[in-house]
Amino acid sequence: MLKLSPVLKWASDLVQKVKPTSLDKTKNKLAGKVALLTGGASGIGYSIAKSFLKNGLSALTIADIHKINGTEAIKDLTLQFGEDKVMFVECDVAKTNELDWTFQQTLKHFTRLDIVINNAGIMNDAAWENEIHTNIGGCLTGTLLGLQYMSTTSRGKGGVIINTASIIGLIPCNGFPIHTLTQHGIVGFSRALGGHYKRTGVKVICICPALTQSPLIETAHKNTLNRYFAKTFCKEVEGCYLQHPDAVGDGLVKIINKAKPGSIWFVENNDHPHEIRFPKFVDMINEKLT
Ligand SMILES: NC(=O)c1ccc[n+]([C@@H]2O[C@H](COP(=O)([O-])OP(=O)(O)OC[C@H]3O[C@@H](n4cnc5c(N)ncnc54)[C@H](O)[C@@H]3O)[C@@H](O)[C@H]2O)c1
Predict the structure, then answer these.
(1) Which end of the chain has fewer CB atoms at under 10 Å, N or C?
(2) Which ranges of the chain would DSSP assign to H, the alpha helix?
(3) In a domain, 229, yes or no
């Protein structure tokens, strides 16, 4: 029986448990690979950086808008994993030219690119234009650039693109309708690109963490459309457990090889990732009104 936090119990029919034994445990599966990670200066992104490097990743670019946190993250990762493995590029993912520059710098510095993780995001419906440009724009541009640089149909040798969405990409959050829009968008976009793998050699997958300790979630209640939405949000998350961000980083390492193109994964309660099983379209249609 799956154990889900209270807010998620009603969505349990979407979640398919993947047995721990069937998860990929091979160490060094990332050896020789180079990754570009957005929003890696903090929270979930920083944990993804740590997990990937711990599991053999050869080199990593962290692209983040926060220069101080980014520089600090690089210092910590260099201490843990050695010199010349990580590079920081100050970048606003909402700006195509800055993100493209980050891709170019990665290829120039590390000479190859195999994995792109579009993880930068904000939860701020009060600043919804920026939220849309960062969450949807950043993921969209990062994915298109990932395809441009890695697709076998252009200049690349294939690769993996991982988009970070959220549980709020699977079920609506009434306190955050605009954040819901951005996260549902990322899920649909990633699913739609699954069908292009054979042609491009680039596997697009999506990870949907449940509530996870990070500055984003800890300040979210201050960033709603107004105080009514804040109240609704506080009720929705009341009693919910905040998992450790390492669960997302470690979870991604477990699924990166075995995940099917276009598949959507859910990480909750510091547990192994679950694949999301979407209902068949016929089962979604209600009886016809007469
Ligand atoms: N924390 C949660 O409960 C939770 C749950 C599900 C999904 N997520 C998603 O996980 C991702 C990471 O969030 P987090 O919780 O680790 O938050 P976080 O605030 O700790 O990290 C987000 C990072 O993105 C960076 N960033 C923000 N805007 C940017 C921009 N325009 N350009 C470049 N970098 C930018 C920030 O500087 C920060 O380093 C987000 O996409 C978020 O929506 C978080």
Answers:
(1) C
(2) 43-54, 67-81, 96-110, 128-131, 138-150, 177-194, 197-200, 215-219, 227-237, 246-255, 281-284
(3) yes
